[in-house]
Amino acid sequence: MADLALVSGATGYIGGRLVPELLRAGFAVRCMARDPGRLRDHPWFPSVQAVRADVTRPADLGKAFEGVRVAYYLIHSLNTGAGFEKTEADSARAFAEAARRAGVARIVYLGGIVPDDVPAGELSRHLRSRMRVGQILREGGVPTVELRAAVIIGSGSASFEMVRYLTERLPVMVTPKWVRVRVQPIAVRDVLGYLVGVGSAPDAAVGDGGVFDIGGPEVLTYREMMQRYARVAGLPRRLIVPVPLLTTGLSSLWVGAVTPVPASIARPLVESLRHEVVCRDHRITALVPDPPQGLIDFDEAVRLARTRIRNSDVATRWASASLPGAASEPLPTDPGWTGGTVYEDARSFMLSAPPEEVWRAVEGIGGETGWYSFPLAWAARGWLDRLSGGVGLGRGRRDPRTLRLGDALDFWRVEAIDRGRLLRLRAEMRMPGLGWLEVLVVPADDGRTRYTQRAVFLPRGLFGHLYWWSMKPFHSVIYRGMARNIARIAREHEEFGEGRGREQGQGRERAQELGPELDPRPRRHVTPGENAATARLPWDSSTRHRS
Question: If 385 and its partner were Cys, which of 89, 278, 390, 428 is the partner (CB 3.0–4.6 Å)?
Answer without folding.
Answer: 390
